[in-house]
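Quick one, tokens below:
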């Protein structure tokens, strides 16, 4: 991930919990324009691709507006719906700080916005990814509970030395999750809905595997942070995701000790396969890099 915004101590202007004021008045006209450009692109791509909960959340929070949302105003609506609020942080924060915020129904969001020449890709989360991507789902009561439980589970996994496994659950659900619906597969992952190209790729490209969600399977699968995913995991519903994760992970973590990772492009015999990917995209990319 980009290192510019990573610190080990809260920077001088931040509180002990690493939060900073958003300083909404300081966004420039160009910053607001960038938000609107990104927003309008996604508004064209996401109907029929994003899940209902996401699209409803976007409406409920009235996130289109004139530009970068003012967290204070957005939080009034969000808090009334699910008891969550968004807090501004200077960039990526240490794991225990991040989990503690989630466990208390606070979503830490970067306040900076990408430059106009970075519309398509950026390695670290900015306010468009964090707010447009993540916050609409936090208006859904089931997903809201899942994120809080994840924060509590993160603190536990840290103590148990299992964060590398639990991080994969976050990646393949909160960031890159797909959902099965009567109308077909839909996106709920923030990393997908905040990217125009991946919104299309994740659902329509023949390259990636699309596999039924299985907790242990997900925790054994590495992920890519540098390009489109080679595997996406499909949940039957948000309730099923919450139910699968409410059990105590202690026994699962113990089992994972003895189990090898599953290669990122592999399918296993136990997989429920929605799409057997060609992996052509990943292979092509690897060829260029070699
Ligand atoms: N049930 C998990 C545990 O025992 C916590 C958790 C809940 C993790 C939801 C992720 C999501 O550690
Ligand atoms: Fe994210």
């Amino acid at each position: 991930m980009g290192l510019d915004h990573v610190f080990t101590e809260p920077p001088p202007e931040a509180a002990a919990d690493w939060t900073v004021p958003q300083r909404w008045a300081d966004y420039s006209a160009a910053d607001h324009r960038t938000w609107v450009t990104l927003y309008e692109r996604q508004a064209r791509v996401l109907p029929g691709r994003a899940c209902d909960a996401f699209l409803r959340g976007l409406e409920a929070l009235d996130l289109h507006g004139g530009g970068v949302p003012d967290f204070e105003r957005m939080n009034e609506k969000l808090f009334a719906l699910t008891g969550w609020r968004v807090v501004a942080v200077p960039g990526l924060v240490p794991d225990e700080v991040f989990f503690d915020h989630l466990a208390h129904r606070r979503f830490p969001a970067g306040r900076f916005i990408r430059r106009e020449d970075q519309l398509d890709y950026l390695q670290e989360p900015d306010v468009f990814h964090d707010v447009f991507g993540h916050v609409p789902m936090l208006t859904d009561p089931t997903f809201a509970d899942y994120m809080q439980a994840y924060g509590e589970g993160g603190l536990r996994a840290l103590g148990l030395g299992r964060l590398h496994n639990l991080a994969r659950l976050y990646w393949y659900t909160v960031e890159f999750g797909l959902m099965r619906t009567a109308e077909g597969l839909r996106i709920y992952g923030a990393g997908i809905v905040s990217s125009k190209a991946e919104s299309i790729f994740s659902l329509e490209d023949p390259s990636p595997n699309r596999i039924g969600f299985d907790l242990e399977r997900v925790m054994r699968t590495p992920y890519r942070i540098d390009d489109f995913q080679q595997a996406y995991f499909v949940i039957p519903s948000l309730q099923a995701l919450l139910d699968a994760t409410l059990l105590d992970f202690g026994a699962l973590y113990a089992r994972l000790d003895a189990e090898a990772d599953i290669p990122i492009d592999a399918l296993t015999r136990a997989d429920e396969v929605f799409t057997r990917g060609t992996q052509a995209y990943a292979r092509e990319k690897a060829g260029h890099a070699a």
